[in-house]
Design goal:
By secondary structure, the chain is α+β, with helices and mostly antiparallel strands. The chain has helices spanning 6-29, 189-195, 246-253, 262-272; strands at 31-36, 53-57, 67-71, 82-84, 89-96, 103-112, 118-131, 138-139, 144-148, 160-165, 205-210. The protein is globular. Bound molecules: zinc ion (ZN).
Amino acid sequence: MKGTSPRLFLLILLPAVILMVLAPRFCSGQAFTLTRLADGFDYPVGKPDSYGYYVYRGFTQNGHLGEDWNGNGGGNTDLGDAVYSIANGVVVFSQDYKKGWGNVTIIRHAYRGKSGQILFVDSLYGHLHVRMTKVGERVTRGQKIGTIGRGPHNMYAAHLHFEIRQDLRVGMHRSMYPQTYQTYTVGGPRTFLKAHRVLRYESRMVRVPINTFQKKTNPNRAYTQDISVPKLSEDEEGSPSIPETTSSVISRETEPEATTPAATRSMLKRLLGRD
Ligand SMILES: [Zn+2]
């Protein structure tokens, strides 16, 4: 590189690298849809307070990553009972996933956190007997989205497996992320619900990121590395400021905890003169 002006190097190469990193994100990566803000969260069964149901297996970090809800009658007495969306949101996954799962629906919710910023969580409803919504469909708090089932080949006594995640990348690939409160919500689903039963009503729609689930194949592809969405700030109007400015994305990408592939990250660091 001797003889080449460092400034020229930066002028040509830096924008090229930035484009390589950002182009996939803006062309095919971060997509958005609109959803109504959650005005509160209810329980997924026995609407709205879980009347007639109990958790017979709770959330444990690095263990059971959700709650198993069962009817008070036990056994299969709750087979076919209604399962409700815990809040306003948009369906981001609806599929017979087979394996130990059977029918699974995941709904993405936007809500206003205590500090005023807009946050997102995914709620997952597993082992459903029937699914009643499709991907992309907007749902409202308390809307029936399916019924309690027994999993593939009736492998379980009827129950609802219910999860809440604050990391929007998890999807059906739980093993790729820390199985802790950091990925899910502190204390597990019920703790989250209890803390968010009533939120101020706001009629506005907000943008919610979609297509954020990590692809299991080739996880190091840049376009699958999404920004930590719950941390997105909002602009004056109150909607998430997305897409973010180039500079903020770059600074995020170069943070040590960023999930960008190591090679890209170190290259950016070198070019930006950071350590
Ligand atoms: Zn379970």
